[in-house]
Amino acid sequence: MQPALKRENDLTLNRRSFIQVTTAAAGGLLVSLYLPRITSAQQPPAPKVYPPDAFIHIATDGKINVTVNRLEFGQGVQTSLPMVLADELDADWSQVTAELAPAADVYKDPLFGMQMVGGSGSIAHSFQQYRELGAKTRAMLVAAAADRWQVAANQCRTENSVVYGPNNRSARYAELANDATRKSVPDKVALKNASEFRLIGKPVKRLDSPAKCDGSQKFGLDLDLPGMKIAVVAHPPVFGARVKTVDDGQARALAGVRDVFEIPLEKGTGVAVVADRFWTAKQARDLLKIDWDLSGVERPDTAELRAKYKQLATTTGNVAATRGDEKALDRIPQTNRIVAEYEFPYLAHAPMEPLNATVNFQGDKAEAWVPSQFQTMDQMIIAQTLGLKPDQVTFHTEFAGGGFGRRATTDSHVPKEAAVIAKRFRDTPIKLIWTREDDVRGGYYRPMHAHRIEIGIGPDGLPSAWRHVIVGQSLLAGTPFAMMVKNGVDETAVEGTADTSYNIPNFHVSVHHPTVNVPVLWWRSVGHTHNAFVMETLIDELAARARVDPIAYRKKLLKADAKKLHSVLDLLDQKTAWRKDPAAGRAVGISCHESFETAVACAVEVSIENKRPKIHRATVAVNCGLAVNPLSVESQFQGGLGFGVLQLMAQGAITLKDGRVEQRNFDGYTPAYIIDAPSAVDVHIVPSTEPPTGCGEPPVPVISPAVVNALAKLTGKRYRTLPLVSV
Amino acid sequence: MHFRLLGRYIFVVLIILTVWISFSISEAAKSTRENQAVGLAAWESIYSVLTSPRCINCHTATNYPQQGDDRHRHFANVIRGPEGKGVAGLNCVSCHQERNADSTGVPGGHNWHLAPLSMQWQDLNDRTLSSSAVCRAVTDRSRNNNMDGAALLKHHTEEQLVLWAWNPGRRPDGSLRSPPPISHQEFVAATRTWVEAGTPCPKGR
Amino acid sequence: MATFHLNINGSEKTVDVDPSTPLLWVLREELKLTGTKYGCGISACGACTVHVAGIATRSCVVPVELVGDRPIVTIEAIGKDPVGRVVQNAWIETDVVQCGYCQSGQIMSAVALLKDTKKPTDKNIEESMGGNLCRCATYVRIREAIKRASQQLG
């Protein structure tokens, strides 16, 4: 998803944060960090102390537990951030464990000012933070050892959780931990040079792998608490509809049903069923007879919306980018022009673990367990719902089975629903479960879009004039981030187009943001999902028309200062000798795109099997700055490409008719299975010592344009309407 | 049937002698034609059942079964497998149990599987084969598991997966799946008539 | 409500539940075996896969009343099986998992495949794993891990 707040300044921890060191209850060293809000430039405010607030716990048995200030939902941060810290700490990696932080100020994203995962910022924003935590803790352990041996700190060195001093003296971190708690925290520490890294930049396997392979990893949905009840909610068939009447006689008659009652929702109202068990609750919900009040509720129809968007795209919208001469296009002869219209559907995130939240309301306080991308936001809204202050809500971050943006809502509507229900059941943990049907039909989709582009081609075969209109709902309008919509332009709708690195002299992009009664949300890689598709298919078409190699054409058109993109195109070219000679019946497609400061170039080899694209292989070149964990980068790219294939699936669309979502589950809304995803993915990383940039989202935009660019070679057709119903 | 026809023929030959021979032959032929017509009509009833979604969805020509009254391709990449039972990890019986699972909407019956490709009643584009083509497949003992008329009648009367079509259970939304167009009793009666008529098949492709 | 005696991971468990309850929810809520996951409830994603009498079975659509006395093995016990152990190790060595939510089901399907086909081809893998959805799309490494396990099984 999109960065929620702009990077305000370069934040390092040295000046405006402080670390507190204490002895852990069970002994050992506990390093806590207090981080003031980045927006307040003056003196640090008094930190709010929530237990636990530690980042590092060096236990007396030698175990080092690192608290991760992010949700782990597949991106591997629960391994990568401890790696970063352990490297600077010179910790014995085999003794390092990790846990997810609860909601607390100290765990907020150093740049965004809220505790969150989004904008591919987990490593990018916390790399420096975790390095410094490791380095400062190491300095304290060294100081403790130096004191003990009566030597200077610089006579000591560290390796694998051991401090070595002169005369063959050594002490394990665990032995030094208690002494280290009495050392002052250094203001400044020297960080390692890249040549000194022992973990950073090396392929390191995930810490959570064993537990995820034997069923022992608990996710939010697996939570089991004494006295816990299960809640499911009958949501309105049309967004915003309200319950007129409900006949719950049959539902209440089921053994194990505890209560059935109407609840307010973010939009409209619903009926909650609370039962001892999920199956009982679900059966009871199926037995409810609800008469819905649809009066005054807009009932969108995606077929009508398509027509409306297509029409809107023929008119100029709010200006998102403009340079050169607007009229330049009109002077180019018709024969040298291309007019292209694109359509993109609504897309659900559909993470594997259905949405859920557990809340226990205890009167003057509450406890919540949520697989959340927005911990402090969710905590605040749960508190508001229960009439409490945020620090009266203990908020546990649960492992999540995927998310892709879906667990980062600005209205926190799922935890809020749980809180509304829990409020009626004091001292009873309520686990709210959204069924898959609730999820597929529940809104918060990647918005539907239309694009219309007119291109004028210059005598050199390059585009000299480009007029581009985008139509789609704003993600940010109506949210707490609405102030980021500037001059009627929501940047998340135009990113990847308005800020393109292609050097087009006369370039004009505008956008319309219609209002539609369908909740929308950032979907892994956000606006880049559709913008990269449009840009990379059009550039490919222009290259083909100019009869220039697609990589060479892109390099020729890219600005010279688009260094990351140039670097990945060069690397891709080197690594894809195979692209010159695809197997019979197969064709190669190329794309490149930069998002979240990471550049990616992609080549795919595709054939047509059973009227569908079969992606035999993909090669990607990546420039993500320093690759902190190359094994994890590779895995994000292998998976991110497969995730992006959803855009091409025949059933990769959410449609509405008379206000009702037409799909229910994976039988109607079908993401990529193993046969649909690329059979093999080689990932090549441009060597770099630049600061690390994101890897969660940047893989997603490149795959679908690359595949249809290959299909175009096989069929001679250009594919501009998604989903790809037929080839 | 044959004996009765033969008996009548001999009787006619004996009594009326040669002048009537040609007439007698045409009379017998007419009777055979009537029987044929009755058999063929019965076959068309049978055909209406075999090509109903409850039956034909598992008599595909492709490597996958179908589902639903619109006979769409089975979801989740379910495939035929070497014996029509799916493949390890994704067998028919990975979901389809000995009985219908009405609470989850998954149909079931003993030994749930796809019919062999020799018993395909549709083409590779999922179009239903003609009445004559299906009839030829059903009556061809090299393709139908060596069943003669009597065995076919028994199959239609007793086979569990055949019987399932008239007890197809509930869909995931709780509604009842639609059965074939005629009752099982009528289907068995039609089969009996057709078998007694010598399992005639309509002409054509 | 009715009482059922289930043979789960080698021991007999007694549960008192509505007969229509899918096996998945009996495992998760009655027996606290939460390694088996709910993903779709319609057998379209495979996250709920367990072995019933050796057959990889989508537990979300099988009512407990249809299980009978067939032995059930879940992800929690598949490591006791020699093939299961090798597959789990191959998964860890290949660093397959991302969010990990679907992986119990992926592993249960892979074990069923390798018990049936010792040297699976790419096509075998695509077919047998064809119904197991992974939204993180760890498919490339799933292929690798199955091949690695196959090699180790000899």
Secondary structure: elements and pairs:
The complex is a heterotrimer of chains A (727), B (205) and C (154).
Chain A: H1 13-16, E1 18-23, E2 29-34, E3 54-58, E4 64-68, H2 77-89, E5 96-100, H3 122-149, E6 157-159, E7 162-165, E8 169-172, H4 173-180, H5 209-213, E9 229-234, E10 242-247, H6 249-253, E11 257-264, E12 269-275, H7 278-287, E13 289-293, H8 302-312, E14 318-323, E15 337-344, E16 356-361, E17 366-370, H9 375-386, E18 393-397, H10 413-422, E19 430-433, H11 436-441, E20 449-457, E21 463-472, H12 491-494, E22 506-512, H13 528-546, H14 550-557, H15 563-575, E23 587-595, E24 598-609, E25 612-623, H16 630-644, E26 656-657, E27 660-661, E28 681-685, H17 700-715
Parallel strand pairs in A: 4-5, 9-19, 17-18, 21-22, 25-28
Antiparallel strand pairs in A: 1-2, 2-3, 3-4, 6-7, 7-8, 9-12, 10-13, 11-12, 14-22, 15-20, 16-17, 16-19, 20-21, 23-24, 24-25, 26-27
Helix pairs in contact in A: 2-3, 3-4, 9-10, 13-17, 16-17
Chain B: H1 2-16, H2 21-50, H3 53-56, E1 66-67, E2 72-73, E3 86-87, E4 90-91, H4 131-139, H5 149-158, H6 160-164, H7 184-196
Antiparallel strand pairs in B: 1-2, 3-4
Chain C: E1 2-8, E2 11-17, H1 23-30, E3 49-52, E4 55-58, E5 72-73, H2 82-93, H3 103-116, H4 122-128, H5 139-153
Antiparallel strand pairs in C: 1-2, 3-4, 3-5
Helix pairs in contact in C: 2-3, 2-5
Q: Look at the helices and sheets of chain A and give the structural class.
A: alpha+beta
User: What amount of the residues of chain A lies in strands?
Assistant: 15-25%
- How is the biggest beta sheet of chain B arranged? 2 strands, antiparallel
Class derived from helix and strand content of chain B: mainly alpha
Count of extended strands of chain B: 4
